[in-house]
Amino acid sequence: MNNAGVQFPSENIEDLEEENIRKTFDSNIIGIILLIKVVFPHLKGGSTIINTTSAAAYQGHPELLDYSATKGAIVSFTRSLALQAKPKGIRVNAVAPGPVATPLTEETFGEEKEDLSKPPFERNASPEEVAHSFLFLACRDSAQMSGQVLHPNGGLIVSG
User: Fold this and answer.
1) Alpha helices in the chain (DSSP H)
2) What is the pLDDT of residue 36?
3) Are strands 149-150 and 48-52 parallel, antiparallel or unpaired?
């Protein structure tokens, strides 16, 4: 399971710092590709690879341009690797959560205050709520899934 990511919000593309753009791509997509490149020869039929992408890959995000781009790249990479891994019997899928209450989210946007008057989906998910999607893709119950993306995102409508 690949679950790495950094983000550096910017309200204006002109304010994006090249160093941060490169860090975002290095961490979010290049690291995944290089790790799988090393591990792939050792995987056997029945193995599974699960990549973490984001709802931002589908909806975009006005303050996370480079982050959204890397998460879109993860979707494309997942689908392409699934095709390449098929002859070896290796499944490759991804999970695209919506906002999750993690240290990264809190550091970037501040701690979310839960409004109990809102329906349950109008809040950041907990990591435990999203974990079940990863567990499903890791087990035999998802044996017919490869090249797919699960969307535990609190009810956001996405296409793709």
Assistant:
1) 18-25, 31-39, 56-59, 65-85, 103-109, 127-138
2) 98
3) unpaired
CA distance 23 to 17: 10
Token pair recorded at residue 160? 């793709």
Q: Is residue 149 classed as helix, strand or coil in its secondary structure?
A: strand
Is residue 78 within 8 A of residue 20, CB to CB? The reply is no
Q: Which residues contact 43 (CB under 8 A, 6 or more apart)?
A: 49, 85, 88, 90
The residues assigned a catalytic role are 67
pLDDT digits (tens, 9 = 90+) for 26-78: 999 999 999 999 999 999 999 999 999 999 999 999 999 999 999 999 999 99
Give CA torsion, residues 6, 8, 13, 14, to 10 deg: -130
